[in-house]
Amino acid sequence: MSALLTVTDLCVTFRDEGGEVPAVEGVSFALNPGETLAIVGESSSGKSVTALALMRLLGQSPGVNVSGRAMLGDVDLMTLPERKMAEIRGRDLAMIFQEPMTSLNPVHRVGNQIAEGLLVHERITRRAAMKHATALLAQVGIPEPAVRARAFPHQLSGGMRQRVMIAMALACRPRVLIADEPTTALDVTVQAQILDLIRTLQRDTGMSVLFITHNLGVVAEIADHVLVMYSGQVVEAAPTSELLRRPLMPYSRGLMGSVPLLEHVRHRGQARLIAIPGAIPDPRVRPPHCTFAPRCTHMRPDPCKRARPNLEPATAEHAVRCARWREIAV
Fold first, then answer.
1. Distance between CA 159 and CA 149 in Å, rounded?
2. Interior CA angle at 116 toward 107 and 153, to 5°?
3. pLDDT by residue for the chain (330 residues), tens digit each?
4. d(CA 74, CA 325)
């Protein structure tokens, strides 16, 4: 099966008064039709910047430098003129943004904001677009959708605004959906409804999903493959079942160890979760060796502080960025 979206060596650098700040370094992956690829990692690991770079939403100012390739079919998104990219956004490539309050226009009713993409890409009447927008609000679990379609963003709760963003992204049934923490503000019941809706659209249309999340429970439920990002780099990549069963990178193990599980509950209380010490390094002063070394319980000066490790294959489908993964995996 040929990939629908192929990203090769994506790099994003910002420039400020202190010099260049590398945010994303050499991210590569392939997304097949109908598949879900999850990107996981702590805040400031580069997940959202990767998504914004693919959508070409980081701006064209001299302070932003984006390089690499992102092939949507046979079209390189990185080299398209902005007019052509605007035709693709929303129709072939759509995104659910992380912050609905800043992503929705405060002076337009939410129904009109959902209908706008339909009017641009589908060439249908305004009445038909509003009818479709109302149906989408019902699909994402908003009660009284006809009433809510006439509301302004500030009149809705945070969870409802998040669902409006989801409805906007799904309106034109895109080939690739980028979902940046789409269920963070939702309760578990609505979260399950949204995940079911995404899976239904995948089954009906072959839509591919790039799913950015902190929730490893959601990853286990919805993702086919996982990329673990840390400090702007991919540090592990594998099929979901393989990574959850046998994580090789100490950082991936730390993420999984910090998740509360039912089996952690004992008859006298809950076992302590395993926290990852420290914090992600400032991208301005990333160490020249393994960026996770200062926080890693498996760190040894040699080889961990000798050089920055490459992302290398552990199996045909499992790649890891760690100098000691063979010893740790034993």
1. 15
2. 30
3. 689 999 999 999 998 887 889 999 999 999 999 999 999 999 889 999 999 999 999 877 788 999 999 999 999 999 999 999 999 999 999 999 887 778 899 999 999 999 999 999 988 999 999 999 999 999 888 999 999 999 999 999 888 888 899 899 989 989 999 999 888 767 888 788 888 888 888 888 889 999 999 888 889 989 999 999 999 999 999 999 999 999 999 999 999 887 766 555 554 555 667 788 888 988 888 888 999 999 999 999 989 999 999 999 999 999 999 999 998 876
4. 36
The type of residue at 251 is Y
Residue whose tokens read 């996981």: 40
- Angstrom CA distances, 203 to 34, 76, 111, 122, 217, stand at 7, 26, 26, 21, 21
Place of tokens 């998740």: 259
Task: Express the helix, strand and coil content of the chain in percent, nearest 5 each.
Answer: 40, 25, 40
